[in-house]
Amino acid sequence: MSQWAFGAASVRGISHVRNNTRIQDAKRCFEVQTSAGKTVFCAVISDGAGSASHGGEGASLVCRTIAENLRAYFAAGNDALPTEDTAWDWVDDARDKIAIAASRRALTPRDFAATLVMAVTDGFQTFTAHIGDGAIVGRLVVDQEWQLLSASENGEYASTTFFVTDPGTPRLRTSIAEEPLDALFLFSDGIENQVLDAASGEPYANFFAPMARPFANSDSVGRNHKLSERLAAYLDSEKFAEHTDDDKTLIIAVRK
Questions:
Q1: What is residue 38's DSSP assignment?
Q2: Range of the domain at 26
């Protein structure tokens, strides 16, 4: 039985609209039921590198691969949230699929460079896995405070980050938040600077609280297509466009 009201949206940045190029962000979000009857919300976002010729395709491959592995993991009877070792297996799977896609086109995995932002929660514990920029924010049930669960990680130089496709061992970061949550946000770097304090990384409550409210007040559970459409229109508004020309992706989930 569904316990989450959720929605998601991705919009092209001004630069992609101007050049008539595809969006380079990708996303997946869904609920699964464990064998013990527990409802788990899963979400994945990937942002293709602007410097990669097939970054958008890489992002789509990352999201599809991680989502397929998540569904298979819970379908196999697992009741516990994934572990770091499991996340590494899924990242390796995504890297293998990208390598195959690159080889078929006489390209390199770097041409498909993309980030990974993933969260899996049953409302009581939340597992995150993260490579590169983007971020994850949750609202604690106890005090209704907004907490940064996984922060963006940037590279040595400005406007650089890390990717699933990086040579050698990718910079995968995982964590488990033990505090119960009743709201979860995942987003790509296109909106980071507008929703997180640049110095402290603290979430702006005056952004997150109003964005969560329509999902909390909705009569339905599961994916809310109407609110997702409204979310897309908001992300495509001048409010965001004037601050960045990058693609913008946001997933919102509220536990009912």
A1: -
A2: 4-255
